[in-house]
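Example (one chain per record):
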Amino acid sequence: MLSATLSPNHRRSVTSLLATGACAFLLLGSGCSGDDDDSGDHGSAGTSAICATDSGPVSGESDNHCVDDDGQDITQEIGKCAADGADLGSGGADSGEEPFEVRYGATAFDDDCKYKVSFENTCVALNEPVTFKVKLERKSDGSAASGDVPDSPEIYLADDPSHISPSNSIHAPEGPDGVYAIGPITFDRSGRWVVRFHFFEECSDLPEDSPHGHVAFYIDVP
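Predicted structure:
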């Protein structure tokens, strides 16, 4: 009946109003965009924008570094925190950063098999702030590793480690226990990045059972 009684301009207006109502009704769904906007831009946390399929964690080989050659699980117990240079026995000063592997996906054990680390992230887009919601659990018993402030991740291009993220004033509030919202993080070039999280950095990394831990993941930026 509307097509028979309304002018073409009026019909377009009604159609627009119906589409707007549908977007409002589906606000918590996959999102809506205007007819003239098909650029695929990413939204910030809390919006209904759809993240690009080629962004964020990178699929790849599974993480099995916490399994020995006999197929047995490797778990490092976590002891007390000792400040750098204190209560370290005959080891003396730190001998430098150990080599590490970058993990695929969004779940992995830390380099020393102390923690299970998993994360979610807001949409990853060029020059847009990203927050990583990181869950840190003790590998030995699955309990929340709370009380940290992991606000100093390493962030750099995978093929050019000298190019680091321009991110400033990164925060890492905790809530609930063992879950840290690390951000805002900015990626200023398209390509594959490495984000390496550091935990309990105030503790020396020399004792094997130190709470200090780290794990790195690949992140793609479209």
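Caption: The helical segments are 2-5, 8-25.
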